[in-house]
Write a structure and sequence with these properties.
The complex is a heterodimer. Chain A is mostly beta strands. Chain A is 0% helix and 52% strand. In chain A, a hairpin with a 6-residue loop joins β4 and β5. The termini of chain A are far apart. Chain B is mainly beta. Helices cover 0% and strands 51% of the residues of chain B. Chain B has no helices and eleven strands. Classes of the chains: A mainly beta, B mainly beta. Chains A and B meet through β4, β5 and β9 of A and β5 and β10 of B.
Chain lengths: 113, 115
């Protein structure tokens, strides 16, 4: 079992709809969770991070964390073509040296006009 | 805030050349910096973790004598690819983090092409 799992996609969503990206993790002691967006040929950029159970909203983005079920999700409301990218989930597990992030392989999101 | 600058953005050089890549945190002090490599259509691969003032920790399979990392200050880390060969051609990306539970912020990456 991979430590952080994401559906590779592609996930195709019509413009204006809600895109829902999911991520599960194996280390129950994980404390912090991050979502990054990576456009083709570019480096990742931080979208959101969440530490506590529940929802965290920032503009069109909402991160949801459920530690009991060991999943974290990212919702993108009013999806735009510019949201088309690969979304990377990263988890900061407990006890990892230097608190390295464990990365998912990413979900490719395509927003269709 | 949290800007990370990485230079150069692109390098094309002959086989056998050594290439130095700089990573700077511009508006925060980075206790830890990370170096990643990414091949086309593949996932990020962590190469090494660098803490200011101490030796870098390399991931399994990464040659420390080939990929020299220096983290001399809280705002600067460098990666030197020594005697580069075509198989070293890749997209190298640094990230910096202020504290253990804080997000990593990425530089724009360096696209290295060895002829």
């Amino acid at each position: 079992q991979k430590e952080v799992e994401q559906n590779s996609g592609p996930l195709s969503v019509p413009e204006g709809a809600i895109a829902s990206l999911n991520c599960t993790y194996s280390d129950r002691g994980s404390q912090s969770f991050f979502w990054y967006r990576q456009y083709s040929g570019k480096s990742p950029e931080l979208i959101m991070f969440i530490y506590s159970n529940g929802d965290k909203e920032d503009g069109r983005f909402t991160a949801q964390l459920n530690k009991a079920s060991q999943y974290v999700s990212l919702l993108i409301r009013d999806s735009q073509p510019s949201d088309s990218a690969t979304y990377l989930c990263a988890v900061n597990p407990q006890g990892r040296s230097n608190y390295q992030l464990i990365w998912g392989a990413g979900t490719k999101l395509i927003i269709k006009p | 805030g949290a800007v990370v600058s990485q230079h150069p953005s692109r390098v094309i050089c002959k086989s056998g050349t050594s290439v130095k890549i700089e990573c700077r945190s511009l508006d925060f002090q980075a206790t830890t910096m990370f170096w990643y490599r990414q091949f086309p259509k593949q996932s990020l691969m962590l190469m090494a973790t660098s803490n200011e003032g101490s030796k870098a920790t390399y991931e399994q399979g990464v040659e420390k004598d080939k990929f020299l990392i220096n983290h001399a200050s809280l705002t600067l880390s460098t990666l030197t690819v020594t005697s580069a060969h075509p198989e070293d051609s890749s997209f190298y990306i640094c990230s910096a983090r202020q504290a253990q539970d804080q997000p990593q912020h990425f530089g724009d990456g360096t696209r290295l092409s060895i002829l």
